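This week, look over our next protein:
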Amino acid sequence: MTKFPTQRLALCAAIPLLAMAAPAQAQSVIGSGVPASLNGNSQERSIDFAEQVPASSALIILTENAELPDVAGLSVAERNSVAAAIAAADFKGKQGQSLMLRGIGERPLIMIVGAARPDDKSPDWRAAAGSAVQNLMKEETELAIVGAPDPAAMAEAALGLALGQYRFDRYQYDVEKNPASQKIIIAGTGAGEAQMLWDNRQKHLAEGVRFVRDLQSEPANALYPQSFVERTRAAFAGIANVRIEILDEAAMRKLNMGAIVGVGQGSPRGSRMMIVSYRGASGPPLALVGKGITFDTGGISIKPNKGMWAMKADMSGAAAVMGTALSLAKSRAPVNVVAVAALAENMPGANAQRPGDVVRTYGGKTIEILSTDAEGRLVLADAVQYVADRYKPFALVDIATLTGSVGRALGDQYAGLFAREDAVADQLLNAAAESGEHLWRLPLHPAYAKAVRSDIADVKNSGVTDAPGASAGAHFIGYFIDESLPWAHLDIAGVDWNSSSRPLSPKGASGFGVRLLDQLARDWKAE
């Protein structure tokens, strides 16, 4: 008992010393403060065009039927051997078919790849080239592709190569060998014209898609609202006719953007709204607005752990509109677009918004929060009102990984399309057919609109029982868009991430939306 007072005095004396020894900046660091990697992705194959086939290259022959096309680079004996192999394998030149041959002549290999699509549609040179390069990822040799019949087809094949060989491996440290990086040559008559088509458009379209895939693939400790802004700003550096506007939380509060700020208030990483305008033509712009939840835990309405890792890609819509603007601006497309990324991190912090809260939006309309896990529609509510008011677009398209229900309805082959007007839906469906990124129109029935109305606010963000989930989400966003403004909503929750490889998209981030919206912007002009 006599020792206790002494021990207590010693402990009390030590407390100030412990406090002094603590690092002064320890609590000011968000995250670990240690970057997971300082590397970039591994080097890929460069793409060139030539009239002649190099003698030492592995040869990839694209074909749309069982007949070997009349291509250079094969001797008579080699051609006869390849034709015999095609016949023996019952190869028909259909999309998805390939035939690998070795030991013919001096070439390391000869690969025959089908490009014929079903239903007598025109051959898909993109998919054929993309699947070929994926099958040869570890083939340590230069590749030459032949068989694309004209410069346009050659440029399309180049796009397939650029998209098909994409990889995100910057965080892989302990690997024995990187994939092959020898160049690819697309050979054929009209190589110079094909090079121009590639340089003027397809190359930039590929860059836009790959930019989106990089953003989707980054872990949330590397990609958050401010770093999204920084990386996107860097991507647009030096590009003509581009204007960038950034709204931080202080600016958004002054504008009464309670919905987007509310979503991010539980995170130490502040929300942002990024607006990129590209003016390549006169007249009002086409507005493209994307959901940018850089990580979605569900907030207070927290998600289960299983599959939560995939919520790093809940910013896919925001990435898609920025990738689209990047493609259009770099290719100097004759269009006028404004792309908006509504960025927030949805975390269950001590300051997080709660179920039952009510928030006021930019336009003054109010939202009752019934689930903090229905957050994407909240950030879009402020974004669509702001861009419509400040930029006066002739039409508006929003794109978001909004609902799980759209994936259950359509699977992983189609994104959901909602539109009030048939003419607007037709614009999107035509762009989908041209670009190869598929949409399926879902009902925006007026009866479902009543289901999103709130008892104490204008609308509620969840708790809807009288409407399909994807339709309710579309109606919620539509509530904040004037009926006089042509509008479409794209729900891409089923197509943003691939569970297995596809010809134009290896396993992982798909970059969905860039090809579709790039085509839409070129085709849809203000009247």
About this structure: The mean pLDDT is 93. The domain at 47-168+180-191 is CATH 3.40.220.10 (Leucine Aminopeptidase, subunit E; domain 1). The chain has two domains: 47-168+180-191, 209-523.
